[in-house]
Amino acid sequence: EVQLQASGGGLVQAGGSLRLSCTASGFIFDGVAIGWIREAPLKEREGISCASTTDGSTFYAESVKGRFTFSRDNAKNMVYLQMNSLKPEDTGVYYCYANVFSRDYWGQGTLVTVSS
After folding, report:
1. Is 104 helix (H, G, I), strand (E, B) or coil?
2. What single string gives the DSSP state of each residue in 29-83?
3. Per-residue pLDDT tens over the stretch 44-85
4. Contact between 107 and 24 (Cβ < 8 Å)
5. Which of 9, 10, 22, 63 could make an SS bond with 110 (beta carbons 3.0 to 4.6 A apart)?
6. Pairing of strands 11-13, 110-115
7. How far apart are CA 73 and CA 78, in angstroms?
């Protein structure tokens, strides 16, 4: 059973920071894509950051480049998203994401609210 448990969301002032964490289980933490997606109110889901554990490459959405940093600990099956210089438009539900054997998985998500 693939499980992705995200945490760390909350309410923060614009310009502030949050660090999201995700605990992954139910699959081998290698040879997969893993990262974060978000869903803003009334908007479609957007990929924020994703890394391939095969080649080590990391993707960032243009809207978060230079502000968000993805990291992972393969041994612990943990992934993180450090979010700095937060903006109100960053508000949304953030989901930990994984692609395992060509199937997409995501957890319950954690809500990030950025006030002006």
Report:
1. strand
2. SSSSEEEEEEE-TTS--EEEEEEETTT--EEE-TTTTTTEEEEEEGGGTEEEEEE
3. 999 999 988 778 789 999 999 999 999 988 788 899 999 999
4. no
5. 9
6. parallel
7. 5
